[in-house]
Amino acid sequence: MTSDRNETIVLGAGLAGLTAAYALTRAGRGVQVLEGARQVGGLARTVTHADFRFDLGGHRFFTHDAAIEALVRELLGPELLTVPRSSRIRLRGRWIEYPLKARSALAGLGLGTSAGILAGYARARFAQRLRPKPLVSLQDWAVAHFGRPLFELYFRDYSEKVWGIGCNEISAQWMAERVQGLSLGAAVRRALWKQGRELPTLIDRFLYPRLGIGRIAERLREEIERTSTVLTDTRIERVHHDGRRILGVGARRTAGEIERTGLEFLSTIPLTRLVQALHPHAPAEVRAVAAQMRFRDLLIVTVMLNRARATEQTWIYFPEKDVPFGRLHEPTNWSTAMAPPGYTLLVTERFCFRGDTTWNASDAELIDATMASLARLGFARRAELHDARVVRVPAAYPLFDVGFEQRSRVLHEYLARFQNLQLAGRGGLFRYYNMDHVMASGLEAAQSILRRGADIDTVAPLAMEGAS
Ligand SMILES: Cc1cc2nc3c(=O)[nH]c(=O)nc-3n(C[C@H](O)[C@H](O)[C@H](O)COP(=O)(O)OP(=O)(O)OC[C@H]3O[C@@H](n4cnc5c(N)ncnc54)[C@H](O)[C@@H]3O)c2cc1C
User: Fold this and answer.
1) In this predicted model, what pLDDT tens digit does every residue of 311-346 receive, in sequence order?
2) Which DSSP symbol is given to 460?
3) Cα→Cα distances 151→91, 202, 316, 376, Å
């Protein structure tokens, strides 16, 4: 058993856990980061496949937080590229540029549909001013902010594809957080006059590491390992406690089980997973709430092509149900270093639940269906397929169904009893966070630990079986 008087145990080596560990090691604290996967970075990792590299869905780095931007610049320096953003949405077989450009929207949708959208928007804004209604579901929110015609044309199908449940079952809060202040009015004003605040949803340039977004996590790991440890292939299965403090964790590695004790604990693994791993068990009613909270999972099908380029966009969105994936991106449009010369790759994102037919489909079936769609859309021919890779990504999105806030609160309130436990990150807090938010949440959690200062005399000695 390893026990260090000065040790914080960090659960999960995504950007939240690594940023926290980095801040703690910079402050002279000993840290052990325990990660279930064989690679660090979590959702923000870059997969290497022969000479190709790809993220799990293209990850752009953008933030309004100067401290987080300074940290990323300090870590990556000249590796950072500035990439112009250009996205398209495929609607009714036509292409529309996003952020909206007046001419492209008109050409793509036609005058009649565009006029209908604007009229629907005006009606919805007027109705909401006259008789404001509570906005409970995504459907309420999108209709109130964009009007019914645009909701039906775009938001309904895309949201249902992403979440796998009806728009009236998805919480309005997801939409409000996701589009952060965007309304059709703001989008149209920007399309016509380029006015308005830089909303994260609309920004048209972002930072990207030359070798993929996973470089942020890799650089954090290098810095942490100057003085502390990052242990991959270490899946946490038990979290031991005495009702007031966390005492240690039990984890499974390929080589066998290990146990770790520590003074402070910082969890970035899915909130529900943490509650389920508590030993002794959390009360039945708390576990029942955890069991009702779900994550949406993600399946990435990447095809490598023996052609130099297939698209011109950063992202392309496919709300319609006749295309099996919701979004695709071509990493070589972000950085030419992501494929060898003369080749390119397309990364498609499918949203699913672990264990459903999409998740369980064989790699060969998934690659075949993806190539068929790409051929139909005109992006690639079967003869150009050089190689392919399927990656299944559990717990990609906390599922914000109606009522999730109350359920999440129950878990947070229960966990608050543990005096030496901090939570951070997207799944760790059950928040719809981007990379900059999770990094900030990691820094905050590290600061709480540093402020508190560990008093080792209050920690009960832990006797655990099977420790190594
Ligand atoms: C498709 C997609 C596209 C995105 N695009 C962007 C973007 O363009 N820009 C942006 O800013 N953000 C983007 N994000 C969001 C971003 O990926 C996340 O906010 C961020 O990576 C979350 O970091 P995290 O550390 O909180 O969680 P995670 O990355 O989920 O890290 C948690 C870690 O815990 C590990 N873990 C889980 N269970 C256990 C266990 N039992 N034991 C040990 N380890 C465990 C996991 O393996 C993982 O490494 C995107 C997300 C997705 C899904």
Assistant:
1) 999 999 999 889 999 999 999 999 999 999 999 999
2) P
3) 13, 19, 19, 26
Pairing of strands 295-305, 278-279: unpaired
Rounded Cα distance between 69 and 462, Å, is 40
Per CATH, which fold does 295-398 belong to?
Polyamine Oxidase; Chain A, domain 2 (3.90.660)
Q: Atom of ligand 1 at shortest distance to CA of 251?
A: 42
Is the CB of 210 within 6 Å of ligand 1? no
What is the C-alpha to C-alpha distance for residues 146 and 60, in angstroms, rounded to an integer?
A: 26
Q: Where in the chain is the domain with CATH 3.50.50.60?
A: 7-41+212-293+401-458
pLDDT at residue 292 is higher than 90: yes
Domain with CATH 3.90.660.20 in the chain: 295-398
Tell me the C-alpha distance between 244 and 11, whole Å: 19
Distance (Å) from CA 214 to ligand 1 centroid: 11
Class of domain 7-41+212-293+401-458: alpha beta
Q: Position 340: which residue type?
A: P
**With contact defined as beta carbons under 8 Å apart, do 96 and 89 qualify?**
yes
pLDDT tens-digit readout, 78-133: 999 999 988 898 988 888 887 666 666 777 778 888 888 888 888 888 888 888 88
Give residue 426 CA to ligand 1 midpoint distance, Å.
7
- Beta-carbon contacts of 36 under 8 Å, excluding residues fewer than 6 positions away, are 12, 232, 233, 234, 235, 236, 269
Q: Which of 435, 439, 443 to mutate to test the pocket of ligand 1 (most atoms within 8 A of CB)?
A: 435
The predicted pLDDT at position 201 comes to: 54
Q: Which candidate, 93, 75, 66, 98, places its Cα nearest to that of 22?
A: 75
CA distance 276 to 284: 10
- Give residue 448's region: left, alpha or beta (phi > 0; psi -120 to 50): alpha
Q: Where are the alpha helices (DSSP H) in 310-422?
A: 357-360, 363-377, 404-415
Burial 406-417 (b: 16+ CB within 10 A, else e): ebbebbeebbee
Q: Which pTM does this prediction carry?
A: 0.90
438 is written with which tokens?
């999770």
The reply to whether ligand 1 has any atom less than 6 angstroms from the CB of 329 is: no
pLDDT at 199: 53
214 lines ligand 1 (CB under 6 A): no
The interaxial angle of helices 404-415 and 284-292, nearest 10 deg, is 140
Per DSSP, the residues of 192-207 read HH--S---TTT--EEE
Helix (H, G, I), strand (E, B) or coil at 114: helix
The 3-state DSSP class for residue 140 equals helix
Residue nearest to ligand 1 atom 53, measured at CA: 396
- The amino acid at 254: T
Percent of the chain, pLDDT > 70?
88
